[in-house]
Each structure stands twice: as C-alpha cells, then as structure tokens.
Amino acid sequence: MISHLNNRSLIKISGKDSQQFLQSQFSNNINHLQKDRIQVNAYCQHQGKIIALIWLFRIEDEFHLSIPTEMKEILLSRLNMFKLMSDIDIEDISSVTYQYGVVGKVNLQTYKIHKNLSLLISNDSHHDSDSIDSWEKACVENYLPEIYLTTSEKYIPQALNLDLNEFGVSFSKGCYPGQEVVARMHYLGNPKRRLFIFKSRFKTNVGDSLNINESKSLKPSGEVIRSVSYGDGFLCLATFETAHIDKDIYLNNIPQQKLEVFNE
Q: Inter-axis angle of helices 72-82 and 18-25, to 10 degrees?
C-alpha cells in the first residue's frame, strides 16, 4: 500500500556544519543515523515540551527533514534563529519533491520509519496512490505519534513513547534544547502518560480531550494526537494517564460519548 503524503513538507539541510548543528537541536543522536532509515526526532523547547516531531533521513551528505506542512514555518523559523554563524543552508524543497507513505514490503527504494512503515521520496507525482486514510490508520495501529499546531508544546517525549528503546530520544548524546528536563524525567521513573489506541463511535479530532470521572487533575486525563475513520466509527491514538486506563473514558467529557481501548 502506498499513499501520497500531500500533508507533509520537506526541508533540506546542507553545508559542512549540518550534522553538528542538527545534533545540537534535536533529541535523537544524529551521529547514529543509519542509511535507508528515518530517525524520529523531537524538537523541544527549553521546558522539554515537544514543538514538533521530525522525520530525519540522509541522502549522501544532505539531511532531509519531513514534517507536517502546518508545522513547517515554525520549524524554519526556529532553525534559522539558531543557525547563527553555522555553515549550513536551509532549503524548502516541498514543491519539487513528493513524499509517499508505504505500508508493508515493496520493491522500492524507501526509508524505513517504524516496523512495516516507510517513506518513499520521489520527483514523480504520478505514482498510483491509496487514500491517505490508509496511511493514517497504519500509523495509529503502529503507535507512531505526530505533533500538530493543536498539540505543539504540550508534551514531553515520554508521553509519546519516544523514550521506549530510545526510538525518538537518546539519553547518551550531548545537549539539546530541553535535554535536562527530558533526562530528569527519564531517571525519575515511569511517566504518568503513555500512548494508547482508542476506538470511538463518535468523530474524534486531534486535540480532543479524554476524561474520566475519578480524576482529580485539573487537566483532562488524555488528548487525541492522531485520528482516522475506521469502519462506522473512528480510531485514535492518544496520550493518556496510565493509572486510569481501566476506568470509563469519555470523549470531551460527554457522558454519552464513551471510548473503548482498542485491542489489536
């Protein structure tokens, strides 16, 4: 299955300081980036909250950053603000490069993201393509998180499972924005929020709240970070308080809109 990801943009970073610069900005260890692999990185602010999630890969000596289009201007502004005197060039190549999400094994040159998910980069806009919903459903089922404007600067990496097997965070690399906070939370023990998949008979949107009656928190117990239609309802990926996952959970605090934990 292949889907044209027309909701994503692509930024190219080149120049002799590219690797060192990106290493100082992102949460993962750029020096460990593997050929034909995508490395997921969190771009955090000083409090450790994720501004954006980056899919990072390399073509020869040039780094490429794939990101939801609605997050592109925030990313470009921040990169340009911090590059200072670094010898790097930052170029938006979204208009001349097409991105395709691939599920399963295909005979194409792709960059593996996670399990059976990969990214195809092409100059051709005429690939046969499935619905983007097919890709979104695969991302939800594989617990692949995303950050949009609605959820930007709300969550530390642990709340999106990025610390598990150091999938999106390295705890042995050098400093990056928010590194001290993220590391402190890691060594303090288990985070209070993790990713879960929920099934709903009601429409779910990114940013919708998940609530329980027993919670004493002033904030909702969870929030939807990805959502896709599924049968006659919706499937969503949400960050949620682990202590309350066995409770009755309601969408946007509406008693009639009860959610179910999705068991694959």
A: 110
